[in-house]
Amino acid sequence: MKYAILGAGGTGGCMGAYMTEAGKDVTLIARGPHLKAMQESGIRMETTKKGNYTVFPVKAVDMEHYEEQPDVIFVCVKGYSLEETVPLIRRIAKPESVVIPILNLYGTGSRLQEQLPQLLVTDGCIYIAGEIKEPGCLWQKGDIFRVVFGVRKPQEYRPVLEQVRLDLLDSGIEGILSQNIQRDALQKFSYVSPMAACGQYYEVKAGEMQRPGEIRDIFAALVGEIDLLARSMGITFPVDVVETNLRILDDLTPEASTSMQRDIEKGKASEIDGLIYEVVRMGQRCGVRLPVYERIAGALQERGLS
Question: Is 296 left (phi over 0), alpha (psi -120 to 50) or beta?
């Protein structure tokens, strides 16, 4: 199995490091100083679970110099960079290649499938707290590392997806081949979207949300509104998502934050539209009032965040 991972940040980079360490044939597609550092010195991992170590060598190239034809293409870029990956995927994919998007935004797989009708594009999501600490160095905060993926229609299933799951497990990543990926991806979204919204609204990191009080209560209320939205879409989560997401939140290091918050802090493009404003639009389309989301979205727009 030959893997290409588009994007080498906290999501793709950690996947690439774990899978390379396990002996899988993985190439990371990256750019800039981060790419140069990985090519010269590998990936320095700083983790709360496995300690600090370096994975070297790693296969890493930029888009222009990737010449292989992978069996599996993991798309791990930010939502606003998704369009940039389409020409590359068209160039490198063979007919049987499988594309697995691992993004924060809900519904990415179906949107990408429309642009790549000749390929199988699944949906997917990831549970991890990771970020680029500096070029060539990734910081993984917390123990959770889970990748959930699957096809939207049962007839699209291919045996290669089971091999992907096994390769992830062999790499120390909890790989889950979902039988209901639209539900499971929305369940992941019910965590990352409220954390981004609450964190940005109060301008806080995980530690402030872990303590009892107003901020934690708002995080829980936002999760509850995603649950309400899901029910209006005919989706029922198999767990109490409020309690489940509070446990996930509490497993993070206090310094953890969403990539959206970090991008906004640096004055960069962010996923705020897909993570927060799109939720309000989804509520409008479904005829569901989401008062906490509406209030937070209005306040963030007044701050000029778009």
Answer: alpha
